[in-house]
Amino acid sequence: VELDEEPPHSLNEEALDAALTVALMLHATPVDEVQVMRKIVIDGSNTSGFQRTSLIATGGYVDVDGKRVPIQTVCLEEDAARKIGGSRFTVVYRLDRMGIPLVEIATAPVINSPREAGRVAEALGHIIMATGKAKTELGAIRQDINLSIRGGSPTEIKGIQRLGLLPKVVRNEVRRQIKLLEMSNELARRGVDEGFEAPIKDVSDVFGGTRCKVIKRALEGGGRALAVRLRGFAGLLGLELAPGYRFGTELAERAVFWSGVGGIFHTDEMPSAGISEREVAELRRRMDAGEMDAVAIVADDPERATDALRAVVDRCREAVRGIPADTRMADDAGVTHYMRPRPGAARIYPETDIPPVRVTPERVGETRARLPELPSERVRRLVSEFGINERLARGLLFSPYEGLFEEIAKTTKVSPLVIAVALTETIQSLRREGARVENITHSQVRELFRLIDGGVTAKEAIPAVLRWLAEHPGATALAAVERLGFKAISMDELESIVGKAIADNVKLVRDRGLRAVGPIIGIVMRKVRGKVDGRLVRETVERKIGEVIGNPSAR
Questions:
Q1: 491-554 to CATH, choices 1.10.760, 3.30.1150, 1.10.10, 3.30.450
Q2: Which of 110, 299, 480, 540 has its CB surrounded by the most CB atoms within 10 Å?
Q3: Which has the closest alpha carbon to 510: 540, 543, 541, 549?
Q4: What letter would DSSP give residue 94?
């Protein structure tokens, strides 16, 4: 639904079947009737102002490392538009993702460690990928975490896209919450209560001749510098809650969210940014700030600055209580940032414009009869059918290439081990090196292995060819082979290269005999790598050296 006047559409039947498939693979019980619900969304990411969701099943489980993790619900909902840009008071969304069906799986609160969180997310991802209905690119599977520690409040962390980041996010968030509890205890020790007075004052004249560019620009533009005293918070605004993330950062995020200001200054980090010691001293005097007090400043339009400082005070009052219940998002370093307040349950209610859908026993039975292999079953089959090890099988399972692996292994004579290593370890290695492996298409990979199967190039060329394809979107594998000079050489050429390498190193061969095979292979491979199979090189070198040391006249 892209327009306000466009009515919502009925449930997508294929999406409902996919959700039922996931539910049954998780041993959950489907509902008898799917009722579409809608929740109010006010951030602009849904053009109609609503996001729709449906409960599909309840009461399942997934087994992870010998532990049974209960599944509370399986839901089907629509994705929102994605943010692609914006300015201070504008957000730009792209509609290409809006309305795409999402299957949401909620686990029970029984996960007790960062590692376990990662393992459970991996297991659920395997099940979703096994349906064959899921997208495979980054962001198609996203993890949300609801996390709390003893003495705290539930915190929701949204949209973690990289599975490997999840344990780090959990560790950093636990650290943040522990630090917040410690800060609450310190505030209690200092005698700070939740109702502390926090007067907001105009201190523009303190900064009349300031060298701080931000404050100076705001004042010259007609803004004002406002300040608030935070009783008992001296030293706490600079407290590091997570790597590179301080309590002052958290205050700034609240201020920006609720007012749209660019940020805040506070006395735990002054003098700095052009603010002088004299200005700090006068600021503290004007705000009647004692040794144990902090002062926060915002320079902006007076109304926005007031809203910003009120948000700062509200967050500080929450700090007295301990850990606030909010919704956060994680950055690439695994540190969480304030996103919005946690929504209440009252915002979701039945969607009156979409009729409910009956889930008949016949439909459930048909879906159950078509269930794909469970991930554990698929791993065992890949190991037994293709002779690869369990580690590679698991790597294929949680990659975009598992189906492609089976296709290539069945339609070519290339070793399944070579194919599996290329599609897991080689791709991962290239990604770590910064190659844009997402540019490599299935058709390019398929063509590359057909070239290897046909003797056009050798398996040793795989890493270089894949790297080249990542850098040249749309190119063919044959073009990569030709451009890199990896077209296979003939047996006669190989024999000639091996013969020359032996002749150039005849003393080495005479002295070491068959122990010279390794060094000679190294010399040959420098010339033929990617152009001939390494096994054939070894066989040729061994045979040629055998001929030499077995021929007295060659000595």
A1: 1.10.10
A2: 299
A3: 549
A4: E
**Residue 217 half-sphere exposure toward CB, CA atoms < 13 A:** 5
Per CATH, the architecture of 191-322 is what? 2-Layer Sandwich (3.30)
Own/partner contacts of 438-442, CB < 8 Å, gap of 24 or more, are 438/137, 438/138, 439/469, 439/470, 439/471, 439/473, 440/466, 440/469, 440/470, 442/401, 442/404
Q: Which two tokens stand for residue 267?
A: 């006395």
Average pLDDT, the chain: 90
Locate CATH 1.10.10 in the chain: 491-554
Q: Where does the pLDDT of residue 528 fall: very low under 50, low under 70, confident under 90, or very high at 90 and above?
A: confident
Nearby residues of 321 by Cβ (< 8 Å), 6 or more positions away: 184, 194
d(CA 304, CA 255): 9
Whether the pLDDT of residue 554 is over 60: the answer is no
Give the pLDDT confidence score for residue 545 in this predicted structure.
86
Q: What is the pLDDT of residues 448-503, one digit of tens each?
A: 999 999 888 888 889 999 999 999 998 999 999 888 888 777 788 788 888 888 88
This prediction has a pTM of 0.75
pLDDT at position 344: 67
Of 42, 52, 67, 65, nearest to 15 (Cα)?
52
Helix and strand numbers (H, E) in the chain are 20, 20
Angstrom CA distances, 46 to 43, 94, 481, stand at 8, 10, 47
**pLDDT given for residue 137 in this prediction:** 61
pLDDT of 555: 41
Of 500, 498, 494, residue with least CA distance to 544: 498
Q: Go through 496-520 and write b for each residue having 16 or more CB atoms within 10 A of its CB, e for each that does not.
A: ebbeebbeebeebbeebeeebbeeb
The answer on pLDDT for 535 being more than 50 is yes
User: Which helix (H) or strand (E) segment is 246 a member of?
Assistant: strand 245-246
Q: Which two tokens stand for residue 233?
A: 């918070």
- Contact of 469 with 477, CB cutoff 8 Å: yes
Report the 10 Å Cβ neighbour count for 1: 17
Domain with CATH 3.30.1360.30 in the chain: 191-322
| Sequence-separated (6 or more) residues with CB below 8 Å from residue 46 | 80, 81, 98
Over 396-410, what HEC string results?
HHCCCCHHHHHHHHH
Two structure tokens written together for 4: 């306000």
